[in-house]
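New to this. Comment on this protein:
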Amino acid sequence: MSSQGTVIALGAGLVLALAGDGYLLKRSGDTNDKMAQTQAETQTQITKLGDATTELLQQRLKALDDEMTAAMKGANTTTTAALRRAQAEALKHSQELSAKIQEQQQQVSAQIGDLKEATTTVDSKVSAVSSDVGNVKSEVTSVKADIASTQSGLEKATADLKRMTGDMGVMSGLIATNGKDLAALRELGERNYFEFDLTKKQADKRIGNVTLRLKNADTKRNRYTLEVLADDKRVEKKDKTINEPVQVYVSGNRQPYEIVINQVKKDAVVGYLSTPKVTVARSN
């Protein structure tokens, strides 16, 4: 190849190279424009997205704030209601406690009143008892004096009584010749005494635990005869005088029974039966 051909070839290659560069520059410019446009669009979208996000966030924040406000209002309402209920319960409890305390105070006051009344009653009873004790002491002193006087009088009364040997040869106790003497013997309390009136018209008459029958009464001589039934045995006591101890033994007794006639009337006698108080079998 000649040098002219070479030059042409080089020129053509240069043109092609330049054309390629131009194309590349154009493509590069177009790309840059697209990239700038894309960046602008992206920035716009980012801005819009940021604005939307900000608005959404603000809406959410506002909703959350509203919810919190509503919750706080509800909480305040609930707290206020709970507080009011607690206050009402406390007031009710306080009133009930006050009522109970008042009731207990009334009960205590009543018990104190009862105790005072009981104490007053006890004091009155103690005073009455003390007074009664004083009266009893006075009465005891008086009774002692009466007993001493009675004993002295009894000793004087019994000093005139007589002891006699009975019709069975046993020394009798004291003999009463009248009602006064018999009363003195009863005061002594040594024996039992049964008074009786006995007539001939009567059949057997039960006196104590013996039976008597009058057989004869002699007023001129003051003598009498009678039958005594004791232990299913009938014994005749004949021609006895007044104030004479008529003795008879009854089973279960060491001392004899004694019949004393103080008065002889026409067909009748008046006297008493004396029996031992202590029942002891007599030895044979």
Remarks:
- The longest strand covers residues 191-199.
- The domain at 162-276 is CATH 2.60.98 (Tick-borne Encephalitis virus Glycoprotein; domain 1).
- The first helix runs from residue 3 to 159.
